[in-house]
Structures are given as C-alpha cells and as structure tokens.
Specification:
The protein is α+β, with helices and mostly antiparallel strands. 35% of the residues lie in helices and 20% in strands. The strands form seven sheets. The chain has a ten-stranded antiparallel beta sheet with strand order 14-13-10-11-12-16-22-20-18-19. α16 crosses α26. The longest helix is centred in the C-terminal third of the chain and has 24 residues. The relative contact order is 0.07.
Amino acid sequence: MRHRLSDHLDDVTTPAVDEIDGIDARTGLRLLDELLDEAVWLDHCAFVSASFGPAPPWLRHEPVSAWHPVPAPTPRARPGVPGPRRVCVSFAPEHGTNVHDWARAHGYLLLAPEPGVTARAADKIRVLELFSAAGVPAPSFVLVPAAGRAPARAYWDDRWPGAVVQRRENNLIGRGTVSVNSPAELDRCLSAWPDEPLRLSRRASGISLTVSACAGPDRTVVSAVSHQLVGLPELAASWGQHCGNRLVHPGDLPEGLYAQARDAARRVGEVLRAHGFRGVFGLDLVEDGGRLLAIEVNPRFQTVVSLVQAAERAAGLLPSLGLHILSFLLPALPPSASRALPPGRRRPSQLVVHAAEDTTVRALPPAGRYRHDSRTATGPLPAPPDLAGLGDDESLWWVIARPGPVAAGQELALLQFAHPVAGLEPRPRLPLGARVWTAAFRERTATGAEEPAPPPLRLAEEPMREAGRHAIDLVVARFTGARDRPPLRVPPPDALRAALDEPLPEDGTDDLCAVLDRVTRDALGEATRLDHPRSFAFTPATGNFPAVLADALASAHLSVPGAWLVGAGPTQLELTTLDWLKTLLGLPGETGGLFVSGGSVANLTALAVARDHLLGDDRTGARLYCSAQAHPSVARAAHLVGLTRDQLSVVPTDDALRLDPVNLARRIAHDRAAGLRPFAVVGTLGTTGTGAVDPLDALADLCAREGLWFHVDGAHGAAAAATARGHGLRPALRRADSLTVDPHKWLFQPYEIGCVLLRRPELLRATFDLTRHALDSDYLGPTVPRGAEVNLSDHGPQQSRGLRALKLWLSLKTFGARAFRQAIDHGMDLAEHAAALIAAHPELSLVTPPGLAVLTFRYHPADVPPGWDADRAQEHISRAVCAQSEALLLTTRVHGATVLRMCTVNPTSTRDDVAYVLDQAVCHGASLARP
C-alpha cells in the first residue's frame, strides 16, 4: 500500500519552482463571504488574523489559547447555534481544553483536524512512517526504546558528525529536541528522559527550511518556503529552539533545493490527507549534501504563517487562514492558481525573543507597530499592525508571554520585519540592526522581583510612559490623517450602544494602550470631523497640536486658576493670556475678563453683570434687545438671569440681516413710554447663519445716548479684528461694555475655551465676588486675596476652573500672532474665492456675500423643470454631498428660503477643496433637475 501511494505521488504535477500555489484571492474571498457570518481567530496573538490583510467583516480575533484563562462571556452574550456559518480557528487546538470550551460556550464550529490525526502527525517518532509513505527521505536514525535500554554507547554511530535526540512531544509543549556530540552527552540525555522512546538522528549541518502548505479535501496546496532560524545564540537558551524565519525565493537557495522543498511538502500533505488530516501544516526540512531531509511535521498554524500570508496577498492569492477554512467547508477546493513570488528584495522575516533566564515578567510592551531611530524604539504606532507597507525602520511586535514566572528559553514575543534579519546560513549570527530591535524589546520588558505596587489609582512609571507615547501617536495620527475618511460620521444609536454599553468595570486593565485604541476607534472616531478640510458646516473647529499638549499638562498639574492661594502660576498665566488677546484685538489696556467654557457662558456672564449693574435686584419691566439673527445662547442667558421671554425683545433685521438701529431706537422709545426699563442691547459680530455684522458703531452710539449696556457677541467674528482688513471693527469693540470671543472658533483652539471681556472688569467682582455670596461656612476664608493677588473665581460663576488659557498661550508661543492673522485672512480669502466661483457659474447664485468667511448660495438649474421645489432641492443637495461626497455642506434659511451655507475658516482648506464642494453641489443638483 505504501509503495502504491508513493507511485501515485510521482504522477502529480509539480508547480514551477518560481511560483507560489494557492487560490485566487477574489475567488476565495467571494466564497468566504457567501459561506460565513463569522470566523474567529483564537490565539493569544492576533498575528494571523492581522496578516490576513484588510479585515473582512466576518473575521475577528479573540485572545483564547491553552496558556491563558478563557475570557468570560459578557453578561448579554448568548451562545449561537454551532454551524458552518459561525466558525473558529485556533493556533493549537489540541493543547488543553480552552479552545473547545470557548467554542461550545459561544456557539462556534471549531475547524480543526481530529486530535488523533494531529497527534500522529506531531509525534516525532511516528512521523517517520509518514515520511516513508510519502517517499521523502529523513536523516539516518536509531530508535531508543522506553524500557530495556542498552548503554548510550550502543546507540552512538561514530560516523555521524553529531546527533539530535528528539522526544515524541512537539516543541510547542515538550521542547524535546537536544543536540549531542558524544556518547557521554547522549548518556546524560537518556538519564534526563527515562521511560519514553527517543529518536536519535544523524545531525545534518545544512540550512533549515519550513514549507507552509494546506491539506485540502481534494488536494494539497503548497505555499511559501522559509528559512528557519534555529538555536541562534543571541536569542535562544538551547540548541533546538525556534528563533525565527525569513521567506525565501527560488533564487535564494542552491539550484533545485526550492523545488525539492515544495515537492516534499506536497507528498507529505497527500499522506496526511489520506489519514483524514485537513488544514494548514508546516514541514520542517534540513539540507544535507545538496538534498533535503524531513525533520518533523507541525500539524497546525505556525508563527511563520503570518509571513506567508503577506507573500500570498502580494501574489494575489487567498491567505492561508482563508484556505484553511475552505478546506473544512467545501467538498473540493476551487482551482489552484500558481503565481510568481513578488519581485524585489523584500523578504519578510521574524525573530522570536526568548527569556534569557528563569525570571518573573512584570510587564510586557503592548503589541503593535514600532519604529526605531538611532536611539530607541517608539510605539505602538497608530498604523495598523500589518506587514504590508512596513518601513525598513519599523517592526511589528506580537507579545506571546503573559506577566508571571517564565523559564529560561520560554518565548516572550515575535518581532516581524519587512526585510531579512539574518543571512541564509545554518546558524547565522544576528547583525547589529536585528540585535538592536531585540534589545529594545527586552529594555521595555519589566522582569525580576516585584516592585512595590503603586498607590491606588496610580500607574507605575513605565506603563505611564508607554501609554503616554501611544496617546501622542494617536493624536499625531488624528492631525495627519484629516483626509483619511469623509467628514460625516453619524452612526446609529444601536450600533454605538452595542460597541460602548457595558457593565461597570469592577476590575481594571493592565493594557491601557488597548483601551486608548478602543475608545479612539469606537467613540472618539465615531463622530463628524469638523476639522476635515472639506467640512464647511457650522464654524469648523480645527484645534492644534500644542493646544492638545497644553490640555494634558494642565490636567496633570491639576491647574486651578481660581484662588491665588491654590493656583498662583496658572492665574498669572491666564491674566497674561488675556492681555495678549486684548492686544491681538486692539482693545484698551483697562479691559479685563476671564476665560470660560465657550460663547454661551461668556454671553451669560456678561448679561449677568449688566443686569446687576443696571437693574439691581429689581427686574420689573426689564427689557433686553437683540436681533432675530442673534445666537440662541442669548435667549438662554436671558432666561438664566431671571428674565421672561417677554422681557427679551427680538428686533427684526434689515435686508442685510443686521440689527436695524432705527427700528431698535423706536422699540426702546416705545418701551420707555410704556413704563418699561430697557437696560441692555446685544449686537452680533458675525451671525452664525450668514456672518452678518450688526452696525456696531451706530448701536454703540444708541446705547450711549440711552444709558444702556452694549454687549457684543463676537464669538465667531471678533477674531477678524486681529487682521488688517478687520481693523475697522476695533473702534466699536473699544466702546462695547462687554465682548464675547470664542477662541475655539476662529482662533483655532480645541474645545472648550471662550472668553468674556469687559471695559470695566471690576464689575465682574461686583456680581460674582465670593464675599457677596458667602454663607455661614468660612471654608474658603483662607483664600481671600491679599495685596495684588487675584482670585479669578471672584470674576465668574465657576469656583473650580480649568486652565483653559494655557492652550491659547502655548499656541501663540509656538506659532506667533502673525501665523494666527494669516490663518484668519486665509479663511476670508477662501470665502471670497468661493463667492467668485459661484458668481461665475450659471447654475449657482450667491444669496449672501462673504461675511467673516461665511457665505450662502443656491443651486438653480438653467432650465427649471416643471414642479421644481427650490427649497427641497437645496436640502437634497446637502444630503447628497454629505452622504456621497467627501465633504460637509449644510443648509440654513435666509429670508424664509432654504440656502446652502459655507464657512471657510479652516486654515487647512484649500481653493481646490472649495471648488470640489461647489462642483459636487452642481453635480447633485443637476441629477435632481434632469427629467
């Protein structure tokens, strides 16, 4: 029977030696999409699922292995019914019960060969029968029985250059391979392994190779060949330990060797199939005198599979994990595709880092992508952990061990590279570049005696640094990836609840980097990007990197610019920043104020002071005036300062959507005649809808004549006063009693930072001073300021205040005021450019001209079709642009008509971005107008 099987194998066509076998990727992925709802990769490392490539929707990873506790099902998890549409695949399912327990608990079909078939293939002694049946030579050997052994000398062959002793167990568990050079060494080995049979083989001195293949239902598919690095002294504690791999091409090996390796794997795979084995396996070979000898079979996924999958993807083939799944779900595999290996010098490789001694691992670096410069390794980087696109100065780190005791030689981690890390020699010395990487990993691995546990709610220094570096990488990725996806992102509530709703975590985590990744992906990233260069909706906030650092520093220092006793330095920094802002806007030196959360609280603070200063405690008949285009926060502030809605007098605007001073004067006169008490007027510097600017000088004149408080809501537009073209605004701003500025709008700060400025800042204390509102407790008595000390908590509604000023201070220090002026000018230039493009287009019409980088327009087809609804058309265009184009364009209403609105304050937006959005508006409008 054995001879007949070998004869059959000789008739099977061998692929060309410069090819890699597999299934066409598009064909395989299409089949898997049809067959699967879910496929779960089970292992403590995600290296195989990650190297599959861009993850299909049905593939995910769970950290389940023989060596780690099985994760408990979440309280809401319900097991499904195991079946071919919900499957899982494991690295080594034959070891322990964890994988089987998890599959049963969660309702997945485990795709693994029968344990008996796997055990037979993994047996280092019984595998010799398999090699014989396949017609694949093995090194000369002698079997040492478990009982009735002769002296070691009886088994020793003096003609051999050395020998290798192997136990039955696979290295994954037993580490059962030892090199011996004399009968005395063999005798010690036999004494160490009594009562079990051993295989004593002639030691071949050539290069070691691994061939990755898959035993399918109808044939064996042979994939890539790799050089196996074994027993490297820089990495391993013993001679036979696996230390890594590098992929090889036919031309890398002596002539004929590559073909021999592939043919041997094909032959062995056919015998495995005859015994009922299915799925991915590896065949280890060693070169001896120009021919390859079979050493062992690994009937499972090996770590090299992640390198192999990179080669398969580059060759347009389905990765091995997909091939493994199809081998179990189909009666026959799709036709094979033989492809050329990717050209060039890139040979993905990997190193296994082992424990150098018996020790205790306290902490390991998180898995991910790392970059090394001349000094140190940084990471994990926010880039995906994929070999594709990996730079020459980068590496993927996959952590294998867990914190706790480890033995000398135990595998700690897998480091992967896009290039070779060792020469094609039997036992090459690692070059300096590779040793630098392994040293970097060891430096970031905490070992030895346990350090004292940090106090509650504190982390040790290295985990803090690790998480801090990772957080900065995520921040940088955010700033450098603004165009990575369309700006609009509005996930449905059910999806967000499924991703984020979970029970209160009773115990914490030792992987803060993973939590940062998760919250960035599932929460922070699931929002519309107002900082996208093609986002022209609302007032696009952009933020800047120094401001992000400022918020982190202020939080770390628990900076509270409230009482001077507690936060003297932060308080002075806020006062300095207020002076800078006054200078930037050209305000008088006596102006003062404070930073608040935003324009809404700034308006509230100013109107509270106006109420107290002009009305006192009697609000009877009080009247506050604003235009119909004022921000809703004005009405909200009026409510919070104790005014009814009837006491807020909303004055119609003129044709330019500005507050009309003439109508306002008539309204005030009418109210006075009726016995009412006008006390304040709110003028708007840049309405949110159209960027209109109320006639501030005329309003200031009116308020001066009438003895009214004049508040300017410049949340959007006050920043324009910093530029040369906005200097005309400054005289009116100097006359305002109070001014709202929103640095998180046109001064490019992240949320939250608003500012309220008063011409007479002492009035803030008259309203908010602690002594006015003190009760019986003298708890805050020690904080009363002395001499020139300033308590900013006496200037506004907040007692405990964050140091919002630091982000603006650090931004101005980093970039300088000139850069801010240029950025503001850029926004106005873009709006004027957009207006010119609209005016030149026959199907676009400008509704309101550019005002403080805001303009509105409409699409109107040249030939209006019957039943054309212009308002609905603009809404359709807005929805279509947001949903189908990489842009954000919303609507507003002007004089009762729906219009499209653009706000161009983002300094990263370009003229091309403006033109793109207008082109998209025309395109979507034209599709609607076509009959």
